[in-house]
Amino acid sequence: MTQSRPETGLRRASLASPVGTLLLSSSGTAIVxxxxxxxxxLGAVQTAAGDTSGGSGADRDPLLTxxxxxxxxxxxxxxxxxxxxxxLDGLSASATTVLTVLRDxxxxxxxxxxxxxxxxxxxxIPARAIGTIxxxxxxxxxxxxxxxxxxxxxxxxxxxxxxxxxxxxxxxLEMEGALPNPLF
Length: 184
Prior knowledge:
The protein is α+β, with helices and mostly antiparallel strands. It has 6 helices and 6 strands; from the N terminus they run ββββαααβααβα. The protein is globular and about 40 Å long. It catalyses: a 6-O-methyl-2'-deoxyguanosine in DNA + L-cysteinyl-[protein] = S-methyl-L-cysteinyl-[protein] + a 2'-deoxyguanosine in DNA; a 4-O-methyl-thymidine in DNA + L-cysteinyl-[protein] = a thymidine in DNA + S-methyl-L-cysteinyl-[protein].
């Protein structure tokens, strides 16, 4: 785990996970971003963020420390739902509505289709737009866009390491028991 503070006022911390290295960003009052970073890029990200200490910085942002603990517990199979303040500033009202409905109504181990989520929002947002909104989700994993699937399969996924989005989605759903484990 590495924690840093970029010039924007956000603090960042990385965490190795079974689906790649995650970089979480905190404003101090909310977690505002989760992204996958290639291990080869992590040093450059930390340097750009102004982190040269190499320390964990656990005392600098209690919310970020809590988020790292919850994400670690999720991957260890000890946590199904996250209890963190999340920031969705900068998104449209429609995107915020869709992501909030997803977070609040699709629990660990469940999936929902793009069309079902569109209907559940109570808006006129079409299923295709739901897919676009999932791709804009700044908080994948914490707002579980991996649980949104196509009517005829997994659909897409913008999370994960470069080129591994769909495999990451499949692994997360398997881990949650929403897909059977492969036989081979």
